[in-house]
Design a protein that fits this description.
The chain is mainly α. It has two domains: 105 residues, Orthogonal Bundle (Rna Polymerase Sigma Factor, Chain: A); 94 residues, Arc Repressor Mutant, subunit A (Orthogonal Bundle). It has ten helices and no strands. The N and C termini lie far apart (59 Å).
């Protein structure tokens, strides 16, 4: 028989997050299963708030200073929604931080992909130099490429066809414009996935080519 849910204070839960993230997640899961939505929401907000410095550090590497607060808030909301929808299986603080960092990166990538939060003012292109490991998106050749804003529907459609794992690769390599070696390091440290730079480039190149092919058919 499942023991009854016993609510604890936000202060006690905050200490639990640091001491034993697995129990902290289990507490949130128990609250939700018991129908104690308010307790689950409060605990989840504390959980994510304790990672606010991490979220800010991830976001600040990838967005302009004037967008930082707005995108950080969006990333935090995404993390809260993710926990409430499906509390993750996490055994330690490192895994918790890795999980939150991935959500933050994916939110920044979604901002770049669909033009929310003023980033539509930038003109992104799907062209990049095969010899330049860093230029996944070439901002200087929009007139010769395919504008990510104008072709957003095509990009979104192709993105939805990817597996969840390949979406993350595309998020990091193309939409966050990270070097392949850095993508490989992130995938290993935060997800435990073993990739080689060549694998990352192949996935990114295939996605780019499929988007461009779909644009040509219009």
């Amino acid at each position: 028989m499942t023991p009854p849910f016993r609510q604890i204070t936000n202060e006690a839960f905050s200490a639990l997050v640091e001491a034993d993230p697995e129990k902290a997640i289990a507490y949130i899961r128990s609250a939700l299963q018991a129908g104690e939505l308010k307790a689950g929401q409060d605990a989840t907000q504390v959980l994510v708030f304790r990672q606010s410095n991490l979220i800010r550090a991830v976001v600040s590497k990838n967005v302009r200073a004037d967008l930082l607060d707005e995108v950080c808030d969006g990333a935090s909301l995404k993390a809260i929604e993710a926990v409430l929808a499906n509390p993750p299986e996490l055994a330690n603080l490192k895994q918790l931080r890795g999980w939150v960092a991935i959500i933050a990166r994916r939110h920044v990538a979604s901002v770049a992909r669909d033009g929310r939060e003023q980033i539509r003012r930038e003109a992104y292109s799907l062209n990049y130099d095969e010899d330049d490991d860093h230029a996944a998106i070439d901002l200087e050749t929009v007139e010769r490429g395919y504008d990510m804003v104008a072709y957003r529907a095509i990009i979104d459609n192709q993105y939805e066809l990817l597996s969840d794992e390949h979406r993350l690769v595309v998020d990091l390599r193309i939409f966050l414009d990270l070097p392949s070696k850095e993508v490989v390091a992130i995938l290993l440290s935060e997800c435990g996935w073993e990739y080689k730079p060549n694998n990352v480039d192949q996935i990114a190149r295939r996605f780019r080519d499929e988007c461009i092919d779909a644009a040509k058919e219009q």
